[in-house]
Amino acid sequence: MRSVHLVVPDGIDDPARASGGNVYDVRLRDGLVGLGWEVVEHAVSGPWPWPDSAATAGLSAALDSVPDGALVLVDGLVASASPAVLVPAAGRLALGVLVHLPLGVDDPAARAAEREVLLAARAVVASSAWTRDWLRHHYALPTVHAATPGVDPAPVAAGSGTGGELLAVGRASRAKGYDVLAAALETLDDVPWSCTWVGPVDELDPELVTPDRLVLLGPLPPALLADRYAAADLLVLPSRGETYGMVVTEALARGVPVLASDVGGVREALGQTSDGRLPGLLVAPGDPRALAAGLQLWLSDADLRATLRVSALDRRTDLAGWDDTVARVVDALPTRTGAMR
User: Fold this and answer.
1) Structure pTM?
2) C-alpha closest to that of 238 among 163, 309, 172
3) Which of 265, 305, 245 is nearest to 281 (CA)?
């Protein structure tokens, strides 16, 4: 039986903290167990993404408990800011680092520490091709493996038939573009629509306008979230930054087209149909007018909606599952004694 020590942020199973990185870690853990692996999970408390002394001490204690030569895979949120802990540990462990979002993307001051950690690791796995390419370019890493998130098969969404049922999924925050969507929706007073935002709610700017037809539901359990997808005509992802965008493939798995910011790995997640068409619309990030124009186009053009629906149904048949993700991670993992693969 192969075994791995999986070091992850605390709370990856908490449904109220269902970030893309947490979902990925859970599905990887469960997928490895399903393949017969022994997975020893070590949960390290934050705050994240830049650990304080308590978080660093927790990471150090977790690695100290791992026997010499053992295979260890550490979530980059835990690892990337902690070279003082990870670099020495790399000398006695078969260390892999799983990077969802490079810390250096949002914090250039973190880049030196992150690069030091990743150069010390025997394997670096990125959860998107966009992240892989970013790491290669900025850190000159010799090898980075990409293992994109999978998606579960799902029934085709019925939708409303009118195009007016809009859905956004993710943390209601500036980073996810809540303010951009709210401002865009405020301008759409001549077409019928309703919009539901599902996900944890950050403390929003009290001066932000929340349109009457934009409903904040907070996080939902999987069954109820599935009901929201089934009722949706269009997924809207107005993020200012995304390394992939798992909600994009969750929508496409149901044949729901996507209107999203053209940023980071979103285009990768959206993909193309077999004949090269996009199953959605991409607009400039952080621009309410651009998003409003995309929404207006979608809501006012029935032929466009029908075309994008066909494209989304086509893309639906080409989505990879989580078993493919797990297999890619397994192929990238270091051996107990081997060099980086």
Assistant:
1) 0.93
2) 172
3) 305
